[in-house]
Amino acid sequence: MAAHPEPTREAGLAHLSAFMPRAGRNYARLRNFDFGPGRHAQVSGLSPWLRHRLVLEPEVIAQTLGAHGLSAAEKFVQEVVWRSYFKGFMEQRPSIWQAYRRDVAALAGRLEAEPGLRADYDAAVNGRTGIDCFDAWAGELVETGYLHNHARMWFASIWIFTLRLPWELGADFFLRHLLDGDPASNTLGWRWVGGLHTKGKTYLARPDNIAKYTEGRFNPAGQLATAAPPLREEEEHPLMPLPEPDVAVKPQRAGLVVTEEDCAPETLDLPAAPTAEIGLTATAGRSPLPVSDAACHFAHGAVSDALARGAAHFGVEGQQSDPEDWGAALLNWARANDLDGVMTAYAPVGPVAERLAAARATLAENGVSLIQILRPWDKAAWPHATKGFFKLKKQIPALIDAAGLSPSR
Ligand SMILES: Cc1cc2nc3c(=O)[nH]c(=O)nc-3n(C[C@H](O)[C@H](O)[C@H](O)COP(=O)(O)OP(=O)(O)OC[C@H]3O[C@@H](n4cnc5c(N)ncnc54)[C@H](O)[C@@H]3O)c2cc1C
């Protein structure tokens, strides 16, 4: 068993500090090389902590700017902002996630009914396709819960264009195993490779590129598709308005809900001091198929760590559970603690947001308001994530300035 990263803020911050010397020009030069399992030191490996917000994007960017300045660390800062871009984009086109959820559920049914599809799928996820690099990455993903970005691109491309498997099943395989499994980055990453994100523009994995960036560990010459015709979909995904934060609601007695979407509760700007605290996870809800123990363990541990910090910071008792029905669980907890408000960090599109949306009505019917707090970073970045990344990329200096992250300050 590979050692997994520790799901605590302390471990994330220590990892960030240790990576800092390599976040400048070194990162720009070496970030595309996948040196293999256990040898990913040229990229940060910060994604499990960032995804669960044990460590926050502005913290990473502030440290990076302090160590290198924007010019030398431009590439690393841009990569961190890609996460904000995908979250903002998905937030404004939520039908992409709904269609993906629907299609994964249908495909899970087809896996039961169609032996041919099942056999091809099993060969892919169990690393038995005969394409050495692909089989190794399938194994690395299951074993470690991580893949290098370039390997994710090659893997998704081979899955779609060489193995001709449905992209949604590949995205689901990632989401079930990645410790950083994220509805926005993952779904949109797969759609980008398949030509559904930037319409008509696909990513073709090429043997010479794989040989170069794996330093000759792999060379699948003659084994890969030589063309990548874009996938097509009938549905349009209209642009929706961004969420209005629930700022107007001022509860008398409010509790704090910590979820796997945001595990830094002590840094939230809350409308009231919490008198109780509860931690909830929705990790199993990432897929109709089983989510890996490692991904569940990381998310659960991240929430436990956040609860402990929140309890110390706010001087309240914290409790944790994994209920299916968040409406009933939150209502019971609100009643037991005499709450008229339930506060939580804004949950972007995904299983947590689905459960919170279902709980909102139950709570409202019983006089308890649900208050979601949008972080300033998201509020500033998301409006620029309506089209391609370039639009947000142009805003990076302004975002840095607005967040007070410039090292000269
Ligand atoms: C098909 C596919 C699926 C993906 N699925 C996920 C996913 O489920 N969860 C996830 O966090 N990332 C996903 N990514 C993005 C990216 O591969 C990972 O964020 C990155 O490899 C994490 O490793 P790192 O922390 O060492 O990255 P670094 O190279 O050190 O980058 C620093 C940080 O920038 C952010 N970042 C870097 N590249 C991207 C990117 N392309 N998109 C969004 N954010 C990025 C991450 O927060 C990362 O931790 C996916 C990419 C592809 C192509």
Automatic annotation (TrEMBL):
<dbReference type="GO" id="GO:0003677">
    <property type="term" value="F:DNA binding"/>
</dbReference>
<dbReference type="GO" id="GO:0043153">
    <property type="term" value="P:entrainment of circadian clock by photoperiod"/>
</dbReference>
<dbReference type="GO" id="GO:0071949">
    <property type="term" value="F:FAD binding"/>
</dbReference>
<keyword id="KW-0285">Flavoprotein</keyword>
<keyword id="KW-0456">Lyase</keyword>
<dbReference type="InterPro" id="IPR036134">
    <property type="entry name" value="Crypto/Photolyase_FAD-like_sf"/>
</dbReference>
<dbReference type="InterPro" id="IPR005101">
    <property type="entry name" value="Cryptochr/Photolyase_FAD-bd"/>
</dbReference>
<feature type="domain" description="Cryptochrome/DNA photolyase FAD-binding">
    <location>
        <begin position="76"/>
        <end position="212"/>
    </location>
</feature>
<feature type="binding site">
    <location>
        <position position="27"/>
    </location>
    <ligand>
        <name>FAD</name>
    </ligand>
</feature>
<feature type="binding site">
    <location>
        <begin position="79"/>
        <end position="86"/>
    </location>
    <ligand>
        <name>FAD</name>
    </ligand>
</feature>
<dbReference type="GO" id="GO:0003904">
    <property type="term" value="F:deoxyribodipyrimidine photo-lyase activity"/>
</dbReference>
<dbReference type="Pfam" id="PF03441">
    <property type="entry name" value="FAD_binding_7"/>
</dbReference>
<protein>
    <submittedName>
        <fullName>Deoxyribodipyrimidine photo-lyase</fullName>
    </submittedName>
</protein>
<dbReference type="GO" id="GO:0032922">
    <property type="term" value="P:circadian regulation of gene expression"/>
</dbReference>
<feature type="binding site">
    <location>
        <begin position="180"/>
        <end position="182"/>
    </location>
    <ligand>
        <name>FAD</name>
    </ligand>
</feature>
<keyword id="KW-0274">FAD</keyword>
<feature type="binding site">
    <location>
        <position position="76"/>
    </location>
    <ligand>
        <name>FAD</name>
    </ligand>
</feature>
<dbReference type="InterPro" id="IPR002081">
    <property type="entry name" value="Cryptochrome/DNA_photolyase_1"/>
</dbReference>
<dbReference type="GO" id="GO:0005737">
    <property type="term" value="C:cytoplasm"/>
</dbReference>
